[in-house]
Specification:
single chain
Length: 127
C-alpha cells in the first residue's frame, strides 16, 4: 500500500461527514490505544503577573434570572422578547427561578437583557 501524504489524508477527511469522522476517531483510538483530547492552551504567568487579567478577558456571559419580583407577567413578556420561548416555556422559566435566561452572550447583549429584566421588576445576575 502506498503511503498517503498529509494533504491526501486531509482531502479524505474533508469528504467525510461528521458521523463518519467521529466513527473514524473512535476506531483510531481503539486500534492504537490512545485518546484524542483537545489541546488545551498552556498559560504560564511570569512572577508577579496579576491574576485579575484573566477575569477581564471574559467575553461570554450568562444572564440568570434570580427572581421574578412582583410583576411576574411583565417579566414573562421580557423573557419571551429576549428568547424564542413560547408562553408556557417562558412562564416555567420565570417560575423556576433562579434559571439562566441567556447563556454565552457578549457583554452588550447581557447588559441589555439585564436592563430589560430589571425594568420589568426582576432581579438578575450576570456571570
Amino acid at each position: 500500500m502506498a503511503k498517503l501524504s498529509q494533504e491526501d489524508l486531509l482531502a479524505q477527511f474533508e469528504e467525510m461527514t461528521l458521523i463518519e469522522l467521529s466513527e473514524f476517531v473512535k476506531a483510531f483510538e481503539e486500534k492504537f490505544d490512545v485518546t484524542a483530547a483537545a489541546a488545551a492552551p498552556v498559560m504560564m504567568a511570569g512572577p508577579g503577573a496579576p491574576v485579575a487579567e484573566a477575569a477581564e478577558e471574559k467575553d461570554e456571559f450568562d444572564v440568570i434570572l434570580a427572581g421574578a419580583g412582583d410583576k411576574k407577567i411583565q417579566v414573562i413578556k421580557v423573557v419571551r422578547e429576549l428568547t424564542s420561548l413560547g408562553l408556557k416555556e417562558a412562564k416555567d422559566l420565570v417560575d423556576g427561578a433562579p434559571k439562566p435566561v441567556l447563556e454565552k452572550v457578549n457583554k452588550e447583549a447581557a447588559d441589555k437583557a439585564k436592563e430589560a429584566l430589571e425594568g420589568a421588576g426582576a432581579s438578575v445576575e450576570v456571570k
